[in-house]
Design goal:
11 strands; Rossmann fold; 5-stranded parallel β-sheet
């Protein structure tokens, strides 16, 4: 069986690896843009984009037509799909509502002939939800899988978890230190409030805790640092924008830490998806009680280490690329 995978975000590379690991499956990988500008994305270009970078538009269309299963990862990837569906004459890289509207009948025809799923991961959907909902409604036969914080916006579909955009190691070392190693990866200076980085750093100073800040490093260097943390503080923003599902303050950086057996502390609301997905073993907190929750965690290292072990198991069972691929294919009624 052949899978066509059209992606617009870095974590797609790990899904491709997982699909190619299935006996008898192959996977064409097409990204919607090559100018992500990060070493992490260039790494995946070297591994995956090179296989299709020289294909002309006709061959791209041929690759899409021959796919038994089409997986569109990221809302922006629909834009790539629309350009290919319209013959590739419009080569502008900027997103176009008009172009996607024009392509919907062709995309809908594809969905009727092929089992097709879209994973809604990115924020453009949230900017114009009514328009996107109309697009998806017209794509009859398209299976919608949305991240927990976006699923409430859909009338049909299934929940799929975020997954860490890293190669998950086969095993992780046991953490036996008496003093916990604590880490945090702040956003760039202009967006520090998004993660509550000032609060996190001030609280660590107040409690006399050495905070290892992961910033200004390559992705590989950042991952190497995270491997050795006992507790990773992901996001504790002062304001949560609406109900965000369990994702809340747990971003890809936090999921990476969980994959290496590190406990994660973050804020978020978990009510939306509790009956649907097994809950991640996050040490939940809020901006207004972070100091208290953090101090309690520091006073009980074994609780933190237990959360780290549980985090690793949760990633393996629920949110690893292999688990996500199985979930997607099951939603398309494909037996493995």
């Amino acid at each position: 069986m052949v899978v066509g995978h059209y992606a617009s975000f870095a974590g797609a590379g790990e899904l491709v690896r997982a699909i190619r690991g299935l006996p008898g499956w192959t996977c064409d990988f097409i990204v919607s843009r090559k100018d992500e500008g990060t070493e992490f994305w260039r790494k995946y270009e070297a591994l995956l984009w090179s296989e299709l970078s020289r294909l002309d538009r006709w061959r791209l269309r041929r690759a899409i037509r021959r796919a038994d299963v089409a997986l569109v990862a990221g809302t922006c990837a629909l834009d790539l799909w629309s350009r290919v569906a319209l013959g590739g004459k419009d080569k502008r890289q900027d997103f176009s509502q008009k172009r996607l509207d024009k392509a919907v009948p062709k995309l809908a025809s594809h969905c009727k002939r092929h089992r097709t799923a879209v994973i809604v991961t990115d924020s453009p959907f949230l900017e114009q939800p009514a328009w996107w909902q109309d697009v998806y409604a017209r794509l009859e036969g398209l299976r919608v899988l949305a991240m927990p914080d976006k699923m409430p916006l859909f009338e049909r579909g299934d929940v799929v978890p975020y997954w860490p955009p890293v190669e998950i190691p086969a095993n992780v070392p046991e953490r036996l230190r008496d003093t916990l190693r604590v880490g945090h990866s702040p956003s760039k200076a202009s967006r520090r409030g998004v993660k509550g980085s000032d609060l996190i750093e001030d609280t660590c100073r107040k409690l006399g805790v050495h905070l290892e800040v992961v910033s200004g490093l390559s992705h590989d260097e950042a991952i190497e640092r995270k491997r050795h943390f006992d507790l990773f503080i992901d996001q504790v923003p002062e304001f949560m924008f609406g109900e965000t599902g369990w994702h809340g303050g747990v971003g890809k950086s936090g999921l990476e830490a969980m994959a290496f057996g590190c406990a994660v502390m973050a804020s978020g609301s978990i009510a939306e998806t509790e009956p649907v997905l097994p809950m991640p073993p996050i040490l939940w907190t809020r901006f207004d009680r972070f100091e208290k929750d953090f101090a309690e965690a520091l006073s009980d290292p074994e609780r933190v280490r237990a959360a780290g072990r549980a985090s690793r198991r949760w990633i393996e069972e629920v949110a690893s690329p292999d688990a996500v691929v199985r979930h997607v294919l099951e939603s398309l009624d494909i037996d493995l």
